[in-house]
Design goal:
The chain has 212 residues and is α/β, with parallel strands linked by helices. The chain has a single domain (2-205), classed as 3-Layer(aba) Sandwich (Rossmann fold), CATH 3.40.50. The chain has helices at 13-24, 31-39, 44-54, 61-73, 90-103, 116-125, 160-183, 196-207, and strands spanning 2-7, 27-30, 81-84, 107-113, 127-129, 135-136, 152-153, 187-191. Helix 1 packs across helix 8, helix 4 packs parallel to helix 5 and helix 6 (116-125) packs across helix 7. It is globular and about 45 Å long. The termini are close together. The structure holds zinc ion (ZN).
């Protein structure tokens, strides 16, 4: 069964998803990374995405779904996928559900729950690599990126106002999707207000019955 990961910004879902997927040999679909990868490719779709991103527009629902469909074709039968960053709003959830049905794939949603207070605290103290954009939590004390050795900086959009806007968007757009999956019994929750190791342990426990 596939996993669809949900969590407010600062919930650590990217990190947790990566750790979990690696241990279980699950393929990760990360919407942002997938878009950046495609935008740099010399394909028709790549050029389309690049021009949209460069113009500062959001890539449409149709394009995101086209990307997932392309990605899905590369998955070997019997391999599970962890989706990170999709579906983000109701409109996407409806298309996502239809697409998964068409592909014959089933999924369980997982919400990594944190309080807004924790989200704000984590987001205002995290840093990012100036070069490769790897994100580092406040607990990471070195000043250089582990991956490329470049200097870590505070993200420009990690100020209180921008964070509030992002958290509000999560409440208004993504929460209805989470509630929809909860009402369909397709959603479990894990307490994200603890260390990476403890969240990982809880994720393992919560998902053990869903992974064959
Ligand atoms: Zn780096």
């Amino acid at each position: 069964m596939d996993i669809v990961l949900f969590g407010m910004q600062g919930s650590g879902k990217g990190t947790q998803g990566k750790i979990f997927a690696e241990r279980h040999g699950i393929q990760v679909f990360e919407t942002g990374a997938e878009l950046r990868k495609l935008a740099s490719a010399d394909s028709e779709l790549g050029k389309k995405i690049k021009s949209i991103i460069e113009a500062g527009h959001l890539v449409s629902n149709e394009i995101v779904m086209e990307i997932i469909e392309n990605f899905a074709k590369t998955i070997k039968l019997g391999t599970n996928v962890l989706f990170d960053g999709i579906p983000r709003k109701m409109e996407q959830a409806e298309t996502f559900d239809a697409l998964m049905k068409k592909l014959g794939r089933d999924f369980i949603g997982v919400l990594i729950e944190i309080s807004e207070e924790t989200a704000i605290k984590r987001l205002t103290t995290r840093r990012i690599c100036g070069k490769c954009k790897e994100v580092y939590p406040a607990q990471y004390t070195k000043n250089e990126c582990e991956k490329c050795g470049s200097e870590l900086v505070t993200r420009k959009d990690d100020n209180a106002e921008a964070i509030n806007t992002r958290l509000k968007a999560f409440q208004q757009e993504t929460m209805p999707v989470i509630k929809k999956y909860q009402s369909e019994n397709k959603m479990i929750s894990v307490n994200g207000d603890q260390s990476i190791q403890d969240v990982d342990r809880d994720l393992e426990k919560a998902l053990e019955n869903y992974l064959s």
